[in-house]
Amino acid sequence: MQNSNVSKSPKWLPAGLPLVLCVLLLASILTLTFLSSPHLIFRTTISTVSVTHGQFLLPHQLQNQISSLQRQVGMLLEQLHGESSESKALTRFADQLLHIAISFDKFAEALSGLYGSSPTGSYGVSFVDEDFSDSDESESESEEEEESTQSFKSGELLNYTALKLNRQIGKKNFLGLEAISPSVGLACAKMASNIDRFMSYKIYQTCPDDWNIAQKLMLSGCDPLPRRRCFSKAPPRYNKPLPINSSLWSQPFDTNILWSRYKCKDYSCLVSNETMGNRGFFKCSTCFDLSKRGWEIKMNESTSAEFTIDEVLKLKSGEIRIGLDFSPTTGTFAALMRERNVTIASATLNLGAPFNEVIALRGLLPLYLSVGSRLPFFDNTLDIIHSTLFLDGWIGIELLQFVLFDWDRVLRPKGLLWVDRFFCKRDDLKIYLDEFSRLEYKKLLWRVVPKTDKLEDEFYFSAVLEKPIRS
Are β-strands 343-348 and 365-368 bridged in parallel, bridged antiparallel, or unpaired? Predict the structure, then answer.
């Protein structure tokens, strides 16, 4: 029997939440206690601190941040009160509480920078930034400057800038991260040492060989990176590229790649079966075999989730001209599309191997950005977006939403979204399919089949979806 002395939760509060709430409230109390401790001395500019009887009070921005976090908790409780499905409410509530808890962690990290001061006497680390609240475009610059000391007010911006946890909390994704930091530069403050390393160079001299630091900053949300006044290093024995007709399917010259930061030190290592464990990227073991053309093989619909390129292009005969491939890739999809007079930008990172260099050496267009970045395309411009082996069962639902809506933004009306072999566990399948269905795209091709290459209970999902015309 249950202990009758244990207090019951309110009827509108799902079972199990009191413990979560207690942990969150305890974290809040500890944070506020830390802030109000008389032993702490905040070294900052006079304009951001109030002084009373020789004691330093909290900067106005920090008070705003605390209030914002408190408001979020209140809003969540109100939303939960109106939920009809207890399990759905519990899942959503738990996810968002985790985001708020992470915000407290980030907040505490930012406060640690208050012990030191810059040569000008201001913060070395700042947790709050410009006010992005709605304002009339006719406001003067002076009015905007007066508001620049306020904290963020937009709930959507707070949601976007919070860490996006992986679907399986505590497990790292193939990028080696437990969560994705959206790329708006806010994360640069907590990576000050790496930023300093990246920006330590001699002006008008050769830049350090430090792309690995730059990529680490990008993946952690410090993006776009600050620009530098130094020259990028080139391979000392660089050869001119092959003509486009032969470069698409030819192995690049080793001399055209700087190998100092890769496990493999030449191209033959990347394509050798004997060195599979040293390639640095498990999700694309055959990426560097440029002779492989599995795309053009017609697959059995009952056992394969793949569609052929020609099968997809026939859906929009003559209309597909430009697009984006968001995948761990060396450009094979873009090469096959180029042979069909379609221009594709290949968005990828250098995940232990020279993905971007090889794409360029094939005469294709590499786009170097992380999944947390806003795509550098204008609205309603691309004919097709293709993604494979990148967004799958590791991705959290909120991050997936931001990614899908950015893809929707850059796709033109009646453009195609080709989701190729998205895989996840059986228990998560409906959750992910619901997110794609909520876009309200027309289903042109749709296939769900078991994933048989592993013992885990997983499924492949592939679809070609048509964006509607929204007025």
Answer: parallel
